[in-house]
Amino acid sequence: MINFSKEYKNLYNNYVYYDKEKIKKIFLIFEGKGGSQIITKEIIPKTTNIQDFLVLNSEMERALKFITTQVKKLSQYQQQTASFLFYFSQYGGSKTQFLNLVEEENQKLPRTIIVSFDDLTQLKPTYIFKQILAQLIHKFGSISEFDDSTKYKRFFDEVYSVIEDINVTLRQSNNLRKAENLIEVLDTDNPKRKEALKELNDLLHSTILVDNLEVLQKVSKLMQICSRYNLVFLFLFDEVDLWLDEESPDLRFSSAIMRISKFMKYLLELPDHEIKLFFLFACTDRVNRLFQEQQTEFSIKSPTASRLIRIYQTAEKVSESGTYGDSIDKAFLKLAVLFDISLEEKSKIDDSFFNKVIEPLKRKFNDIPRRNCNSIIIRLLNCYKTLYPSVQVGLSNWTNYAEKYGNLIQEHLASILKRGNIKFVRNDILIDLSKNIVQNKIDGYFINYDYKGLEKRIHTEIKLTKNFTDDKARQVLQWLQLHPEEPFIFLIFTPTPIEEIKKQINIYAEKTDYDLMILKNLHILHVDDPYSFCAINGISKAMGDAKSLAKFLDAFSFWFDFFGDFTESYQE
After folding, report:
1. Is the same domain home to 348 and 474?
2. Where is the domain boundary, 319, 336, 357?
3. Are strands 112-117 and 232-237 parallel, antiparallel or unpaired?
4. CATH of the domain at 146
């Protein structure tokens, strides 16, 4: 268990001196209101790292460590080799965020050149060349062996020669493209001119034949030279799902990849050309499942498919859940600090709240996507800010005013549950319409609908008490005696354990000679934690203004369901 006070204070002191506007932007990303949902180097404070604001689960940490270790090994040994990793996560599992983290961590390594492919449009040699060239310039000054002027000159001469060759090729390609555009402009219906233009077009393509594959081959020569000097290339492929046909149940390339299949084959074969290279593929579990089930059939469809499957078979694989898992307490801590710094005043989050929150967070939300979990945590923090005074008052005096608290719950339960799409009608209902047997009343009914859409009412009694005793079951048993075939809900707010409640109900039934068989249709909804309902006292103050009342009810509804597990219990 985290020492919340200590960790919160340390983290708060680390963050509070940063640019507050940048902290707000980061918090808005977690809240889902920050435009881009990715934390990048550009938006964080200058002296920080992306990892300072993220919470990594064990699989993410394993993947990050593997990549960094392998890249370092590639840069330290002379033998030409390569390494691969497939990083699988669900939709919304922050794959792009992870790639950003990998890029940031490996940019610190002086011999690493990173090419990040964010989408399919970047799968072209000109993009690769520009990325490599821009980073090469910065790497020269950070590699100690280049302090030797002889080595530096030899390396520079080799690299410069290849770069010039590539630039000539690219210029030819650009000129050809311009010529093609001019031919289109000059298009005519005149048969002789049309034939002349066709001959010109054929001549241009016969003398300046440049394609992506040729450019990539020249770029690979540049990479070979760099690899001889122990520079390592880290290729990060995002959105690998788009490489495949998303609509087909069979494993096959998308039309976009089929159009560049020769280029893709050579790209995937770069490790065979004495190039120090690490490939990281980020994709969903669907890709992993298809590769596992259909790799044999897929590999014979094309040389490109065969090459990709061979990489998959030898690659390290990390299946990351896309959730916080057991690290959800750390996520709550970081979000709580960002939340407080983003506010004009601190929200007074204390150890008691942290200890209350963590158990239900881990039990109910540690296996949902991080983005969804972030929304839940942030909503909970907002509820805490709204309800904090009422929670403090309620915890200290609800036992002395249990009847008052019970009346408030009864009066507003319909509005509270409505926000969770549960329909309850508060209405005093006579147990015996004739009043010949009893004159007591119950508190209302829940409304459900059957498969035909017909309304079904389930009558309900509500009790809020600090200690459940047998006489609290009087109206319930009276109703069950007169309506033995109808289901009935007994909604009880009390810290008394459920087994003791059942025992007390049986005691009352036996001492008043009720047939215990009438209990077969009794459904007990037990809300045992006062923390979930004691803030109801604050509604009296909020009722003076419609907006304040709506805000309070929104907060209390979420709070009540989070700590009281009401929706889950009701659905069961």
Report:
1. no
2. 319
3. parallel
4. 3.40.50
Number of domains in the chain: 3
Indicate the DSSP class of residue 367: T
Task: Examine residue 180 and state whether it is found in any structural domain, yes or no.
Answer: no
pTM above 0.85, yes or no: no
Look up the domain containing 405 and give its range.
398-571
Beta bridge partners of residue 441, listed in sequence order: 430
Residue with tokens 């064990």: 58
**Separation of alpha carbons 388 and 303, rounded Å:** 63
- The tens digit of pLDDT for each residue in 309-348 reads 999 999 999 998 888 888 899 999 999 999 988 887 776 7
Check whether residue 217 and residue 70 sit in a common domain.
yes
pLDDT for res 209: 45
Domain boundary among 300, 319, 338: 319
Which residues 6+ apart lie within 8 Å of 28 measured at CB? Answer: 34
Q: What is the pLDDT of residues 60-114, one digit of tens each?
A: 999 999 999 999 999 887 666 799 999 998 776 678 889 999 999 998 888 899 9
For residue 173, being part of any structural domain is answered with no
Amino acid at 118: D
DSSP labels, 407-459 = HHHHHHHHHHHHTTT-EEEEEEEESSTT-SS---EEEEEEEEE-TT--EEEEE
Contact 375, 34 (CB under 8 A): no
- 3-state SS record for 472-531: HHHHHHHHHHHCCCCCEEEEEECCCCHHHHHHHHHHHHHHCCCCHHHHHHEEEEEECCHH
